[in-house]
Amino acid sequence: MTQRTIPLLAILLAMGLAMPVFAQSTGEVTLIIADEERTVPVWSEQSDWSGPETWPSINIYARAFDDEDREPVVLSLGFEASRWQPSVPELEVDLYESRERVGKLYAREEEERGGLSVTLDSHAIDGTLLSISGSFEGTLGPSDNYGRDIDLSQGIPVKGTFVVTLDQLE
User: Domain spans of the chain?
Assistant: First the structure.
C-alpha cells in the first residue's frame, strides 16, 4: 500500500460504515382456510404502515412459494386502526392449482361481504417500526369486481393470527 491509498481506503471504509441501515418488515401470518393451516412469512417489500400513530393504516402481505409439496399461498390483510381499534378490514387470498394462480378470494367487514373482523392483541411503535399482533376471522368468497360484491353462496371460513413488525411507509 502506498501513502496515497491509505487515506483513500480510510475514506471508503468510513463511508461504508456510515451507510444507513434500512429497516424491513418481518413476521408471519398463520392462516386457516377450510381447516387447513399454513404459516406464511411476511413479504417485507410490500408490508408497511402509514398515517399518524393514533390512526395507522396497516398493510400486511405474506407469501410462500418455497414448499414443493404444497400449493403457494399469497395473501394481503389491510385495516385501519383508529385509537388502535381495527376497522374496514380487507383480506385477499390468491388461489393456486398446480402452482399456477387460478383465482382470488375476498372478505370484507360487512356481513354480506364476508363479515371479516380483526382483533389486536398488542402494538408498539419504535421509531418507524410498528410491532403488532392479533387475529382475524371471516368468510372468503369470489368476486368479479375486486371485492365490491362477494359471492358467499359457497363461502369458505377463514381465520388466522399475525405477529409482525412493519416499517413505516414514507
Answer: 23-167
